# Entry
Amino acid sequence: MIVSTADLVNYRGQVTMVDGGFDPLHQGHVAYLEAAAGLGLPVLCNVSSDEYVARKHQPFLDQAERGAILDAIRFVDYTHLSQIATEGVLRLLQPRNYAKGADWRGRLPEEELAVCSDSGIEVVYLDTVLDSSTAILERYEARRHRR
# Structure
């Protein structure tokens, strides 16, 4: 179910939030979502804006398309198409858990850590890193240039 920013407050303390650009979506994302669901709460997937993804690369799919695909994955209960910074979503939602891949340990932005600390949100690092969108794109570009 896709939820609006205004509806986030209705899920306070009741969900595990996952977050990312999910472009391109890959098997590591599915493992991440499954592990987040394994924490025992409904999963709310916060999907970053096209502008955020564009800072890394031109988006393959726009946010609405990424959101629709993520919302269809059985491990995701709620999907939020974000137009605000993650720390703003955390402030509004105040999930019980904020789940990130283990590769984010020591790299999570201070603003997000501060909101989690102030709001009693547990940050959970999931050891599910099978690949990354950046690595997939780098392999694609390398193959393309070898041709």
